[in-house]
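Continuing the batch. This is chain 6 of the set; chains 1 through 5 are on the previous pages. Same settings as before, nothing changed between runs. Recording input and output for traceability.
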Amino acid sequence: MAPPITHVSGTVTGDVEVRFTDSGVAVCRFRLTQTPTQWDAAAQQWRDGTPIRYVCTAWRDLARNATESLTDGVNILVMGRITEIRDNAVYLSVDDLGISLRQRIAYTETSLPSPAAAAPISPTVSVASVASVAAPAAAQPAGVGAGGRSAGQAGGPPAWWERRRATGWNHPAARTPADVGP
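Output for chain 6:
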């Protein structure tokens, strides 16, 4: 019988760690803290309860997306299975996660305007010429991947990860058969 699915909301504490298996499968681990609130009837207000600590593990595309998206202090919603409870922490195998919109706005690659949208447009300049001079987004130095490790370094991302990351994850036309990882 498979373990039951649980839903947790909490705050990411610390950095997301990403590693790769020998076959190139991405796996990430991050810590999550949930602080339940309890109603104090005597004081007529909500009080923070005892924090619950989770160690979350995600695999493959979810690991890649979590590594690129999550930072310390971000509130998230996690759906996963409890794999064990030890060392005062609950270990979760994450099936899905999302950014909580309670305290912030989240933007996706498709919801952001292009750099050309921010450029001033004069009546004599065409939109096509403004788009051609728009600066590309800043990139990391070549060969440096998630977690600051170089491609090919022990525990670092495989070469296909860096190629796909440099060309954009959501552009299938930019991928080659060599870019398709496990």
